[in-house]
Amino acid sequence: MKFKTTIRILSLASLLALPLSSRAGNWGTWTDIAASKKVGTFSFTLSGGFRSQNNFKNVDRWSVGFEVAYKPIKFFEISTGYDYLYSYSMEEKEKKYESWQERDDDGNIKEVSEYNGYNLKHPYWRSKNRWTVDVTGKLPVGRFTFSLRERYQLTRSLHTSRAVDKYRIDDDTEALYFRESERNDRPAKNDSRLRSRLTGEYNIRHCPLTPYLYGEIFNDLQSGMHLVKTRIGAGVEYKVSTHSKIDFGYVWQDNNGDNDETTPNIIDISYKYKF
To answer: Within a 10 A sphere around the Cβ of 125, how many other Cβ atoms?
Structure first.
């Protein structure tokens, strides 16, 4: 009964969050479910996830993965994992301009551009393989616990293509017309990132709720540690039982140069079970 009540509360919270999409830009959801088994100083985890974007209207990605963690002492852990990602890129409309140079009355050359139609890039799916290595340390301070996780992340995006329709302005009639359709290759690529996340949580005495706050930065190792993304998250973990817990939170992210991430506001819900 306690578990069913929790699910109802989280479902209601998710529905209440939906109106935010019309008030504060682009929203999405992250939902994850995971099961883990501890064997001595090791733990093994299987997980699956779903993400939405475009104010909850479109799929962002599906994922499935596993992780192996080694915890030699209470406040230190090393882990490695793999995730298969199946991501969706939405339709894009790219305006096209025709540019040329002209000389003004004073003899100065200036650049002139004129709207000449647009390219309609169709949506497409793409498979990605992701490997991670984590090192995490924790520091308890009274009822607070602070943790720092350093993650090396390598993502291999597989080759795919997308259809592109080209619409242009007719020089004589100035009417928009369909010129041609083509497929554009999206070649395979690797992304290598260092992710640094600092988390603080507070253990409320005799309470199943544990609030937390974290900040995370993503640095691109292929471009001299250039900062490509920042995340700030806050939420609460609810301990349903000795074996299971549910997280509900909000994540804001600034996608500085990361074209694969376009959703700044996230409702984050996850369920974890330990055997």
So the answer is: 13
**For 4-30, how does the pLDDT look when each residue is reduced to its tens digit (9 = 90+)?**
544 454 454 454 444 444 445 699 999
Q: Which residues pair with 157 in a beta bridge?
A: 128, 189
Backbone angle region of 57, left / alpha / beta, with phi > 0 → left and psi within -120 to 50 → alpha: alpha
pLDDT tens string 181-208:
999 999 999 999 999 999 999 999 999 9
Tell me which amino acid residue 255 is. Answer: N
Instruction: Check: CB of residue 160 under 8 Å from CB of residue 126.
Output: yes
Q: Report pTM.
A: 0.85
Measured in whole angstroms, the distance separating CA 253 from the mean position of its chain's CA atoms is 8
Q: Which of the four pLDDT bands, split at 50, 70 and 90, describes residue 111? A: confident
Q: How far apart are CA 194 and CA 168, in angstroms?
A: 43
Task: Output the CA torsion sign for 18, 61, 66, 258.
Answer: negative
